[in-house]
Amino acid sequence: MANITDIIAGLFPGISVDTPEKSAPVVTVDDSKWHEVAAALRDTKGLQMDYLVTIVGMDWPEGLGCMYYLMSSVTNEIVGVKVLAKGDREQPSITSVADIWKVATLYEREVYDFFGIVFVGNPDMRRLFLSIDWKGYPLRKDYDANPDLNPVSIESERQSDFTSTYSRNADGTLAKEDVRVFQPEDFVVNIGPQHPATHGVLRFRTAIDGEEIKKIDVYMGYIHRGVEKLCEGLTYPQTLHFMDRLDYFSAHNYHHALCLLIEKAAGIEISRRAQVIRVMMDELSRIASHCLFVGTFCMDLGATTMLFYTLRVREQILDIMEKTCGARMTFNYDCIGGVMADLHPDFVKDVKELLAVIPRNVKEYNDLFTGNVVARNRLSGVGILSREDAIGYGVTGPSGRASGWACDMRKLQPYSIYSELQFDEVVATEGDSMARFKCRLDEILQSARILEQLVDNIPDGEYLVKVPKVLKLPQGAWFQVTEGCRGAFGLYLESDGSTKPYRLKIAPPCLPQAAVVDHITRGYKIADLITIGGSMDYIVPDIDR
Amino acid sequence: MTSGYIQAQFLDTTGVHTLLTETLHLAPWAAVTVECLLVGVGILLVYALLALFYIYYERKLCAAFQCRLGPNRVGPWGLLQSFADMFKMLIKEIIHLNHIDRFLFALAPYLVIIASVMAFAVLPWNDGVQIIDFNIGIFFLIAVSSIGVLGILLAGWSSNNKFTLIGSLRSGAQMVSYELSIGLSVITMVCLAGTMSVTGIVQEQSDLWFIFKGHVPALIAFVIYMIAGTAETNRGPFDLPEAESELTAGYHTEYSGMHFGFFYLAEYLNLFIVSGVASLLFLGGWQPLHIPSWDGFNMVMDYIPGFIWFLGKCFLLSYVIIWFKWTYPRLRIDQLLALEWKYLLPINLFNLVLMVLVIVFGLHF
Amino acid sequence: MEVTTKSMPYEAWKDNEYIEKLVNELRESGTNVVVGSLDKLINWGRSNSIWPLTFATSCCGIEFVSLGAARFDMARFGWEVARSSPRQADFMMVAGTIVHRMVPVFRRLYDQLAEPKYVIACGSCAISGGPFRNSYHVAKGIEDIVPVDVFLPGCPPRPEAMIYGIMQLSRKIKVERFFGGVNRQEKQREFLESHPVEGVED
After folding, report:
1. Which residues in C lie closer than 8 A to residue B59 (C-beta atoms)?
2. Which residues of A touch B243 (CB under 8 A)?
3. A106 and A248 in one domain?
């Protein structure tokens, strides 16, 4: 850690580097220098912060601003950068870093949407989740939540063919320029939001030439539920249940992540039994999630029957979970201090039964689909994502690992008991849809391996330690990245010392995966869009939150 | 039979003819008109019943492949499920759209269904049980079944919807290409039979089915015909025109009520027609399984009525088509066309030459 | 008249008062034998062939997928023909949260369904906004957007509950009247007249 801060301090004398005890170091940079610092952070040897985990828009008492969290794919260090916005609340602005990290284009749009901070130099400064006529910036602390201002309307939303980009004039004011999203001669087909293959309500505005894709404009927000704002109004234990409903396949993983973060902030030590239970549940969900991925992906390609074979395993896992957690989805099982309830007496037996059938099932999937000549032709070489692009766009999880980027946070940022477990990180180098598909299939086996190690070694002890009834976190900010089923799940928590979070930022893995679709589908056919989108395996409520 | 080449022989039609002309004293032209109407009603009834059964058949089969039960609540074993569906569709609203070509939009489903009814009429169900039979029967069948693509193209074009347009363009490219394979593999078999008449082709197979008689080239033609036939009926893995996960419902996205019902029925009946043609070209139509010089066996086989043979073969071949629909992923449009133009067509041409050689040198059984 | 479905005893239903009310309404309005039996035939077709629209926004949609899978197998009842085009579907399972941006799209989908059309509000989000009720970008239930036939509580409802819900819909269809009289469609029309969409051409 000290190493990183030393390099940064050496590079930019006079820069303030803060090293909080339980979180990554935070560098505070003035906006005028920010672009220069960002480029240096990415390119300097020893830093190589080439992966932008998230941009956290903030409404601090001292003004609007952003927290950038960066990670290096080389050193695996995380660093935070705090930038305060220039200008008043009417038109705050920050220099864009969209040219340094590709995914920043979208992240900056998100911050603009929620906080109204304009990013100077961003090529596409539109709102992301909310309509262009939305009044106010919802995540600002002074947002007027009066429903009359933004009523539910059944009238179609106004749409613009233009996007804007901003530049700074010499006197510091902003100049706006309108840019066309599509050219007038483009044949634009609207895929989604109601479309069987977008896995929910995502919308692609697709410019096509015959069957070939020229450009895709990803439209989000059809299931934007404002979870981050809702969390600010709830106490810490209450915020947990939203984690189930983001990526509902990673319900346990996300729960686990937020519990870890709150426990770390509050200094709560949980029992080993609870840790083992949590990890086992995480891995069970990972298997269930990947199984469903295999099924729905094959269904998108037209091989409907696979879905029914994969759901068979999923149902078996849901049975195990239901016995212990009492629900088939939205479990709300992990809680601050451990888990809600002790394991069901049948748990060990059931998990062993499951472990016995998994290799057989994976073999069956391989026989049925992976080896199929049609499937191979549809998948191999389609939607190739290079390693650089995977890092630049922040595509993590199995999708990123299929491009050769070892980005498993269970290995890079070991949490809970993962450092003690034996498992391989599945990495492929092809970066095509086939590799993404195979990575997930192989991860099922690796998760099974983790379960095998744990199933006979569940220690005795209490499953829930005592935590104060009214939980207050000390003042401070914490950031953490864990591994969901679909990739790196970042959480940023800032507390002002009360019982409610001042800001809880959720950095979902699926947002960059949807953002990269435009980049990797160009020149492919419409049918390949379905393949690529399916192989990315994004979950729309996770993108939109 | 006075009615030219229309031989309605489901019943003893001479009786009907006598009844109409002699008992009711109708003029010959009136009698023929009445007969034609009767035949028309009959064929439509059988068509509808068979299509409904096929819907049920596919749903049950697909359920079996997917470890499910399939329809089992409506009627015994769910047999009436597709009837309920059809009842509902009959009285479901037909939505009138603005900004479409109304005439073509309304015409398209009828074209599709007319094409498949006409093709259906050619199929021989048993010895002499056939509606249209003339010397170029199989040629007629290929000709009318390609009217269907016109309906699909029109449906996609007139709906004024981008998805349907893409769907219909795909289907145009697909059908025109695969028509070639169908035609060539049919010609291969016509060479072997020496006749284009459907009855003649079936009669030729009374001693041995063509798939055995023509051995290697017939087998190749059979495989190609099954592939091309599946593509021709827009069924998976060639269901690109209506690729659900890409184009929502493809060319018939905008159709509702019974208009959609026509597409739905025609899709299933085309499945039957393709298997029917395959069975009459390769598996002897209604001819029982005969093996030369196994007289005892042949006699036993003769006891099974012809239409059971025919339906049995159709269902069996449909089973195969349904099987690979539910197993294979869908092809991409360029792969689909590459399969036809780069592989099937050359193989087919080569196969035709091979068949001719086989016939010339008398190498067949 | 006991309105029920195959292999489900009348007592097993939870809200028979509601259906009985509908049945009484039907009886009072009276009708002749021919039309009555035609109605019965039509309702037999309609109630046994309920095709869903593939529509899901979040978690409930996954349970709907499970409902189609081998374990719960909605194909038994003939509901598995999920149509992707709203023109060909009979009902919409509103599985998931409906947010501001989705509302016009959702309403348009409903308008695109061909008559007779039904809506099942599936899960607490569709019923009331659920856990997201207080959010700035969530519609507080879909009742204000489209007329709802069946409410299906749960977060998400279990597949068994979904079967029950669709069966209830099927029961409701059975007491409907195609030819005149007390018809749900009229209530639907009232609703649509009081919630018009402006500027929509078709």
Report:
1. 75, 80
2. 302, 527
3. no
CATH of the domain at A86: 3.30.460.80
Q: What is the DSSP string of A503-526?
A: EEEEE-SHHHHHHHHHHHHTTSBH
Considering only CB atoms, which residues of chain C are within 8 Å of chain B? 5-7, 41-42, 44-46, 48-49, 51, 69-70, 73, 75-78, 80-81, 83-85, 87-88, 90, 112, 114-116, 178, 201-202
Structural domain boundaries enclosing A104: 2-118+127-143
Asked whether B162 and B84 are in contact (CB, 8 A), the reply is no
Backbone angles phi, psi at B31, to 5 degrees: -60, -45
A16 located within any domain: yes
User: How much is the average pLDDT of B305-313?
Assistant: 84
The interface predicted TM-score of the complex, written ipTM, equals 0.83
Return the SS3 of A63: strand
Q: Touching C: which chains, 3+ CB pairs < 8 A?
A: A, B
Give the CATH number, domain containing residue A540. 1.10.645.10
Start-to-end C-alpha separation, chain B? 36
CB of A482 within 8 A of CB of A250? no
pLDDT digits (tens, 9 = 90+) for A143-190: 887 878 888 877 778 888 888 888 888 777 788 888 888 888 888 888
Which other chains touch chain A, taking contact as 3+ CB pairs less than 8 Å apart?
A: B, C
**Distance between CA atoms of residues A529 and A23, nearest Å:** 39
Average pLDDT of the residues in B345-362: 87
> Quick one: DSSP state of residue B241?
G
Find the CB nearest B331 among A197, A374, A528: A374
Q: Do C48 and B84 touch (CB under 8 A)?
A: yes
Total number of domains constituting chain A:
2
For residue C86, which residues of chain A lie inside 8 Å, CB to CB? 194
Is residue A153 within 8 angstroms of chain C, CB to CB? yes
> What is the full per-residue pLDDT of chain C (202 aa) written as tens digits?
667 777 777 777 777 777 777 777 777 766 666 767 777 788 888 888 888 888 888 888 888 888 888 888 888 888 888 888 888 888 888 888 888 888 888 888 888 888 788 888 888 888 888 888 888 888 888 888 888 888 888 888 888 888 888 888 888 887 777 665 444 555 666 777 777 665 544 4
Domains belonging to chain C, first-starting first, are: 16-194 (3.40.50.12280)
Other C-beta atoms closer than 10 Å to the C-beta of A383 total 26
Please write the tens of the pLDDT for every residue from A415-462. Answer: 888 888 888 888 888 888 888 888 888 888 888 888 888 888 888 888
Identify whether A174 is part of a domain: no
Place of tokens 């087998």: B219
Q: What is the pLDDT of residue A208?
A: 85
Order the strands of the A187-191 sheet from edge to edge: A187-191, A203-209, A212-219
C159 to chain A: nearest residue by CA?
A328
What percent of the residues of chain A are helix, what percent strand, and what percent coil, each to the nearest 5? 40, 20, 40
Residues A340 and A233 in one domain: yes
Residues 6+ apart with CB under 8 A from B254: B95, B97, B100, B105, B159, B160, B161, B164, C85, C87
Q: Is A240 within 8 Å of chain C by CB?
A: no
Domain annotation covers residue A219: no
Q: How many whole angstroms separate alpha carbon A266 and alpha carbon C64?
A: 39
Do A136 and A276 reside in the same domain of the chain? no
* A383 occurs within a structural domain: yes
